[in-house]
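Narrative summary of target 7.
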Amino acid sequence: MIPLGAEGRVLSKQEGIEPSLSTVYRILNKHLKLRKHSRTAGGTRVLQASKPRLVIQMDILDRGEVYAYTAIDIFTKEGQVVMRPTLQTPDGQASPGACDG
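Modeled conformation, tokenized:
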């Protein structure tokens, strides 16, 4: 990325003008064809659920001596957390959202 602060100071000293940041980006985009920013990566599927407990998003957080097994139902936005001492299979099976069989 091109640092914009230095160019603005040069214009300010030489020409006596100070362009706004949006003007600098508009000029750079005209000549360099800057990419638009997107919060989701292209091609990424967004999971959708039509009823509760259909899609559960799971994660494990390392909290030092314990691990937090988290589960979030993406339909109801309801979340659960279980703290366990290891990453072993029995602890994972006791986590929220784990399959019963």
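Residues 46-101 form one domain.
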